[in-house]
User: What shape does this take?
Amino acid sequence: MASVKIKISPADHGRRMPLEDFINAEVVGAYRYELARGVIEVTEVPNDAHGQIIDNIREALGVFRQRYPDLIRRIAEGGSVQLIIPEWESERHPDLAVIFRDARANERGRRMPSLVIEVVSRGRQARDRDYLAKREEYLTFGIEEYWIVDPQSREVTVLNRQGNPATWSGRIFRNEDLLLSQLLPDLAVSVSMLWVHVED
Assistant: This one.
């Protein structure tokens, strides 16, 4: 006898759920669903400005990929990347993720990213999620580099994994600063390029 699949809807925002149940659940409607430390988070699909920034970053990464075709396997958006972090009872979908050619595969056979990027949405809860919660979770997961792209402050925080036990070392880039990435040599992208065609 087939088991009934759990369905999750926007009404479940804030509900506690075990990680295994969440991973196997069916979601309802065009919303973004993540599990944050055992609690379901349901958010609206990001607005046009958010989407434009993601597109600008993707375009810059695409130019880099053409220069270094043997380095990057795939540039993936949130819906096609699933980061399962059992230690935190979390399941995340970063806005962008870079999967390198030598990326390891997880137990489901999916190659894992080394670099993830989040574009911060408006509101205190969104800021805390990207600057605090995901910062800890991505470090635990094993991410090597994490970019926090903040349209409100027009800054990019680049965090790099270091040491054992692992911690983040970070640097903030603004205005015409060129983003420096330990994983993407000679990236040559200024912070100001990320806001092109972005309407507040």
Notes: The two ends are 53 Å apart (CA to CA).
